TrEMBL record:
NCBIfam families: thrC
Location of the Threonine synthase N-terminal domain: 4-79
Protein's name according to its UniProt entry: Threonine synthase
Cofactor entry: pyridoxal 5'-phosphate
Keyword check for ATP-binding: no
First-tier enzyme category under EC: lyase
EC number annotated for this UniProt entry: 4.2.3.1
Keyword Lyase on entry: yes
Domain Tryptophan synthase beta chain-like PALP: 102-336
Length: 493
């Protein structure tokens, strides 16, 4: 069986179930397993099977203290009829490249791939009579709804989401406030996303609150993208996309493929690196950033420097200054040098900057390339993709496509990861296509986008029109803890 330990110390190994329940290691590091490179999957096997088979194979390999039956049940529950295609993550042509469509889940964003699975994995790990768990999360838009949908109705668990009042799109707000389920809670906060995030961190650090909740058999946890239970499910679609290219006869088994990934917290592209270490023939992984280009600078210079201005962009899910999952790459690229990782992370915390030794950067650069797209380039890419390729893409996907187009093609097949439905960002997509959207609400933009392009909005989004608003709570930042406590009382009564 493989064990997980912190990126900052190899002491105190835990099983994958324990790592998934804990989320983050006690020393603040991220859970990793050293067996990763020793577990090559058979490409012939992967290419002969469907998404669900590959999900069972990948998860069974990475999380090997789960039984085959447990994994099979999780896969069936996570990738069922709530997806609008049985292929789950289909690949389609995009000019001379390929588009990997990760937005066919219940909330139309790629986070569904992981957040439909994480609650299942947590549910099995806590066992039938374990502590009850309340997931608490702050969201700037996408994560909140994906977490609500994933955890709704899961036995013994609840989910509470905070979003900044007036600072998410119409559609994103409606997705959250119409969420069904007896174990969900949603609250708008009078403040910014940072206020929400800061308050949620305080809730996790509040020992008195934790003590009161423990007295009622409830523990708080997070669904953050550093959880191995969110990372592992994302490895599946790299293998499955490869299998689809083989079946389309675009490549032969063994050929290398390049992936370009719109990146924020570095979870998605790191899953591609895991796939490579598990035997997938990956030529390069291209990290695409928006104007928050801290990763582009890092990959170019070897220095990670978060001391910079934060830019609000039209690809908000990538507006991030600290890409947490990068810590796992530093661990693997340094051959498991926990001491080095710990000292780099201490530098980041104390000085806001760290510099990685050349030998580690050489290893990283042998796999990773990078590039950036500002909002103007992103809009131009949305427009050109529609006019020239008949492809309607969202702003996050457009960042990746811009970077991919700017990367010289060395003859390998290339896959651009598409992380959200364009209908989640109707107003910005319409504006990119040259339409005026002043004063139009979310549904007016949705109608206009359908009319202009002759495409159809996903029913998960157009259906929100008929949705009943079930959550109208609003609180000040200093009431976030009290809201969590009352949500726990209500959900776990
Ligand atoms: C979260 C998100 C990303 C960034 O993914 P990371 O794993 O954080 O790098 C990109 N696009 C969309 C639409 C997202 O929701």
């Amino acid at each position: 069986m493989s064990f997980y330990h912190s990126t900052r110390s190899s002491a105190d190994p835990v099983t994958s179930k324990q790592a998934i329940l804990a989320g983050i290691a006690p020393d603040g590091g991220l859970y990793v397993s050293d067996e990763l490179g020793g577990r090559s999957l058979s490409l012939d096997e992967v290419c002969a099977q469907d998404y669900h088979d590959t999900a069972r194979l990948v998860l069974g390999t990475l999380l090997d203290d789960y039984t085959g039956d447990e994994i099979a049940r999780c896969v069936e529950a996570a990738y069922g009829p709530q997806w609008d295609t049985t292929e789950i993550c289909p690949v389609s042509p995009l000019g001379t490249d390929w588009l990997l469509e990760l937005y066919h889940g219940p909330t139309c964003a790629f986070k569904d791939v992981a957040l439909q699975m994480l609650p299942q994995l947590m549910g099995v790990a806590r066992g039938a009579d374990g502590e009850r768990i309340m997931i608490v999360t702050a969201t700037s838009g996408d994560t909140g709804k994906a977490a609500l949908d994933g955890f709704a109705g899961v036995d013994g668990m609840g989910v509470t989401v905070f979003y900044p009042a007036g600072k998410v799109s119409d559609i994103q707000r409606l997705q959250m406030v119409t969420q069904l389920g007896g174990n969900v809670a949603v609250c708008a906060v009078n403040g910014t996303f940072d206020d929400c995030q800061g308050q949620v961190k305080r809730v996790f650090a509040d020992h008195e609150l934790a003590g009161r909740l423990a007295g009622r058999g409830v523990a708080l946890s997070s669904a953050n993208s550093i959880n191995v239970g969110r990372l592992a499910p994302q490895v599946t679609y790299y293998f499955d996309a490869y299998a689809q290219l083989v079946r389309r006869e675009a490549i032969r088994v063994g050929d290398e493929v390049t992936f370009c990934v719109p990146t924020g917290n570095f979870g998605d592209v790191l899953a591609g690196y895991y796939a490579k270490r598990m035997g997938l023939p990956v030529r390069r992984l291209i990290v695409a950033s928006n104007a928050n280009d801290v990763l582009t600078d890092f990959l170019t210079t070897g220095t990670y420097d978060r001391r910079r201005d934060f830019h609000k962009t039209i690809s908000p899910s990538m507006d991030i200054l600290v890409s947490s999952n990068l810590e796992r790459l530093l661990y693997f690229a340094s051959d498991g040098d926990c001491e080095l990782v710990a000292s780099l992370m201490a530098d980041l915390a104390e000085k806001g900057v760290y510099t990685v030794p050349d030998r580690v950067m050489d290893e990283i650069r042998s796999v990773f390339s990078c590039g950036r797209a500002d909002d103007e380039a992103t809009r131009a890419t949305i427009r050109d993709a529609w006019r020239e390729l008949d492809a309607l893409i969202d702003p996050h996907t457009a960042v990746a496509k811009h970077v991919l187009d700017a990367t010289p093609n060395d003859g390998t097949e290339r896959v651009c990861l598409s992380t959200a439905s364009p209908y989640k960002f109707c107003a910005d997509v319409l504006a990119a296509l040259g339409e005026v959207t002043d004063g139009m609400n979310g549904f007016a933009c949705m109608d206009a986008l359908e009319q202009l392009t002759g495409t159809v909005a996903p029913p998960q989004l157009s259906g929100l029109r008929a949705g009943e608003v079930l959550h109208d709570d609003v609180c000040d930042p200093d009431r976030v803890g009290a809201f969590v406590e009352s949500a726990c009382a209500r959900v776990f009564l």
